Amino acid sequence: MDRSLHKQQRIKYLISDFCSASIAWAIFFVLRKIIIENVPYDQLPKQVLQNLNFYIGVVVVGGFWLFLYSLSGYYHYIFKKTPERDVFKTLKATLLGVTLLFFTLLLDDEVRSYKNYYATYAVLFFLHFTITLIPRLILTHKKQTLVKKRRLLFDTIIIGCGEKAEKIYSELAGKSEYGHRFVGYVKNQLCKNEILSQHLPCLGQVDNLPDIMSTYNVDEMIIAIEPEEQKDILNIVSWLGYSEVSIKAIAGLHQVLKGHAKITNIMGTPLLEVEYELMPYWQQTIKKLLDFVVSLTALIVLSPVMLICAIGIKLTSKGPVFFRQERIGLNGKPFILYKFRSMYVDAEQYGPNLASPNDNRCTPFGRFLRRTKLDEIPNFINVLKGDMSLVGPRPERQYYIDQIIKIVPQYKQLQKIKPGITSLGQVRFGYASDIDQMVQRLRFDLLYLQNMSLYTDFLIIYYTIKILFKGRHF
Question: Residue 251: which pLDDT band, with cuts at 50, 70 and 90?
């Protein structure tokens, strides 16, 4: 499926939800004037339309609901929506949102009795839930209609190539109303009897799954591997990270996927719908928001320091102020990393070489920049651009990644998250001046990957600041 369709559909839901929330609040505002404040009907136009708070409330409350829905992950898997999910998610979000609005905006209302509080809460809940749900159901119904008419198709791959994979394909391929467009299958090393090759092309092996998913714009993945191959199931699922790919697996994998899946039925075929996220979606949203706000603030606040650094670099050595180098980021995609130049020009004319605390390639001023970590201030530009995060494994060059993977293949797991300005590996291990040290530091970054949370990020940032103030080199 064209990724632009995801964006278009998401925009439709965003506009619908904002308008619904604003309309619900506008109606509620008028009802408050009538019921709580006893404003006569002939004075309503003046009390409402000439009230600045009315317009502020419509915009601010509408924005509040969009933020709340975003935190809940409602706009994430946009094409996985069903009417049942819309009802449940809208009900859950409305309960939380109305409660927050009630205690922050409405609790200090002057009322004749406490029954008015209950009535206020109930009216706002009913208005918002009803006015929001109806357009959502309409949008979801239209999507399902397009799927049934084969005007909206989901590019699907099957993980596996044996009897189970062939059976799943045979059962699903004829069910056009579910929108599957099978593009091929992916096998692993244990896959010997490629029965599915009679129906679909082989796209590659599981080790290359991220590249395959990107190349073919995969929307859905069905895991149908044989029992002896199931030990690799969590590795397969974990590759997906934050992607918007729908994952389903044969029901026999329930024990292997315990905690990451729930039972669903597709055309009579019992499958598991797998929900695997490194962080809860609301934490992912806050993490992105913090990345933007903190980075923008840091660049503004530290702009005088950046000016001093730039002047110092120009006065003490020849060459550009900024150092630009290609690094590998999310999903193995390269990006240009920005730093203040701390080395002499052509410092790597004889090939790549890792930095060290007493690197003789550094200029005298460059040593100061490295010791104080001021050379990494331009990293905040990368965070604003979306190439990096505040916390995540440090980005490496492909030259070193190729060497690390030969020793620790699990390094590729780190490419499913954005690299960061600081990391658990830096805090716990520090500088890595050779491949062996990079491998030792790697275990801390893999540990971070398995324990990602906002709390962990805050701890890493705290210890990073603490280390910097203590003057420890890392």
Answer: low
Q: Which structural domain range is residue 260 located in?
A: 154-274
What pLDDT, on a 0 to 100 scale, did the predictor assign at position 266? 47
Residue after which a domain boundary falls, among 129, 148, 167: 148
Question: Which residues are CB-contacts of 119 (< 8 A; sequence separation ≥ 6)?
Answer: 35
Question: In whole angstroms, what is the distance from residue 222 CA to residue 175 CA?
Answer: 15
How do residues 416-428 score in pLDDT, each as one tens digit? 889 999 999 988 8
Place of tokens 């030792």: 440
Alpha carbon distance 26, 55 (integer Å): 9
For 297-335, give the DSSP string. HHHHHTHHHHHHHHHHHHHHSSS-SEEEEEEE-GGG-EE
**Dihedral sign from CA coordinates of 457, 462, 466, 469:** positive
Together in a domain, 250 and 308: no
Of 274, 298, 317, the one marking the end of a domain is 274
**pTM here?**
0.69
Say which residue the tokens 């970590």 belong to. 373
